[in-house]
Amino acid sequence: MTTTSPAPAGTDGVAGRTAWTDEQLDAVFAPVFARIAEGAVAREQGRALAHDEVAALRAERFGALRLPVDLGGYGATVRQQFRLLVDLAAAESNLPQALRVHWWYVDDLLLADPGPDRDARLAAVAGGELVGNAITEPGVGAIDRYRTALTPDGDGGYRLNGTKYYSTGSLYSDRILVAADLDGERVSVLVDGDAEGVVQHDDWDGFGQRLTASGTTVFTDVAVPADRVLGPGYGSAGRSWGTSYLQLVQLAVLAGIARRATDDVAGWVRERTRTFTHAAADLPRHDPLVQQVVGRLSAAAWSSRALVLTIADQLDRLLDAGGEDPDLLDRVELDVAHAQAAVVPAVLDATTQLFEVGGASITSEKLRLDRHWRNARVISTHNPLIYKLQTVGDQRPQRHRPPLRLERRQAMTRGVGASVVRDHAGREHDRPHGVAPVGDR
To answer: Does the keyword Nucleus feature in the UniProt annotation (predicted)?
Structure first.
């Protein structure tokens, strides 16, 4: 599949990047999203992983959205990226979640010092490469603890052995970021998904987001070259933009779910001619009570998207400043917590109330409208709302910095020696070794 991309509109004021307008990006990706949306119900009914759909995204280099144009990408801003993630989530809510570590991986590389390894990995992304993750392990408690072991092989390389769960997106990806233990030190490694000794299972058994490829990955004596050991893993100190970034992807998914639910219900009401004897109008679409339900759905979708894009603007500023400004980090972290406290209840309520617009026929499995609530409920469990509310409630009266519960997590992409990072404008910033955390899925 090939596409003739529109010419960029001009520079965006950041060195090395050329701006694409929203309209130009839509010209490339809206048709792809529309085709993905057409098969969403059938995939859900048959638990069919979206391999063809991911291939269509790869063909248009969707994973290279944030790469500068001169590196083979689209030069999209964070806001533009998240606008498209909401659109993709409306088409298929599983896919933005499946690829969320990939987005973080790319932006983390863009903040790193130029060098042969970094540049080669960015070139791979420009060529369509996607990166998944294998971090969390079954039965070890906290998500930053693991038994997967990396051991020297005596020839200058290593061998990887262990089992991971919640390997979100890895079945769709070319490479996998793996957290492992090396002689008591937490490290991260980059492994080819088709490497000998890597076995992936689609055994995620949650009742929602079933097609995120979030199952088990087993590594048995996998050969790992020394240059694939990228640096510290979870366990080192350092505040990071990555926590908020990854959580905002989940909120973008919720915004997309709400929009698709709105579209589905509005279309169902528009075509329905049967109503109840005590209804307020002869046709459901004229019934003010039905209109109220649709309105609630639409409001949830609109407000959720607006909150996501507002925070995406802040992430643009944070990343363009190098990703480490403490005041901006605090602001974004708290804003994500506030947004989650607003978005989660609104979307869960709306995707429950949608069934009030009709009788028993709206529960037909042919429609699969229940998937919207199930998917929203599962997404909402990844960063539990109770902790976000506690963070906000603790910080507001006491005015101290928000407790980044995951700040002890560390680098997944750069080498141990990286102590200076460049922002997108080429400015240098001192930073602790390592970068952003990776979420639980």
So the answer is: no
Give residue for tokens 């901006």. Answer: 328
Same domain, 123 and 143: no
What sections of 272-380 are H helices per DSSP?
Answer: 288-320, 326-353, 370-380
- Euclidean distance between CA atoms 65 and 88, whole angstroms: 13
| Claim to verify: residue 143 and residue 108 sit in the same structural domain | no
- Beta partners for residue 229, in sequence order: 189
pLDDT of residue 402: 62
Does residue 216 sit in helix, strand or coil?
Answer: coil
pTM of the model: 0.87
User: Encoding tokens for residue 320?
Assistant: 């363009």
Task: Examine the domain organization and report whether 176 and 109 are in the same domain.
Answer: no
Interacting residues of 261 by C-beta distance below 8 A, sequence separation 6+: 297, 301, 350, 351, 354, 369, 372
Instruction: Compute CA 190 distance to the chain's CA centroid, rounded to the nearest angstrom.
Output: 19
Q: Are 100 and 132 in contact (CB under 8 A)?
A: no
Count of C-beta atoms within a 10 Å radius of residue 37: 17
Distances (CA, A) of 283 to 264, 298, 358, 400: 17, 20, 11, 55
CB 113 within 8 A of CB 421: yes
**pLDDT of amino acid 410:** 36
Task: Mark whether 371 and 287 lie in a shared domain.
Answer: yes
Residue 3 DSSP SS3 = coil
347 and 282 both lie in a single domain? yes
pLDDT of residue 409: 37
Residues 6 or more apart from 241 whose CB is under 8 A from it? 315, 318, 319, 323, 324, 329, 332, 436
Considering the domain architecture, whether residues 382 and 288 belong to the same structural domain is answered as yes
A 10 A CB-CB count for 152 gives 12
- Which of these, 307, 310, 325, 311, lies nearest to 401 by C-alpha position? 325
Spatial separation of the C-alpha atoms in residues 262 and 242, rounded to whole Å: 30
Give me 220's structure tokens: 């048995």
Mean pLDDT by 10 residues, the chain (441 residues): 43 53 96 98 96 98 96 96 99 97 95 92 96 84 75 95 94 96 90 97 94 96 94 61 94 99 95 75 82 95 98 97 92 93 96 91 92 97 84 71 46 39 38 38 47
Report residue 263: phi and psi, to 5°.
-65, -45
Cα–Cα–Cα angle for 254, 258, 261, rounded to 5 degrees: 135
What is the CB neighbour count within 10 angstroms for residue 87?
23
How many structural domains does the chain have? Answer: 3
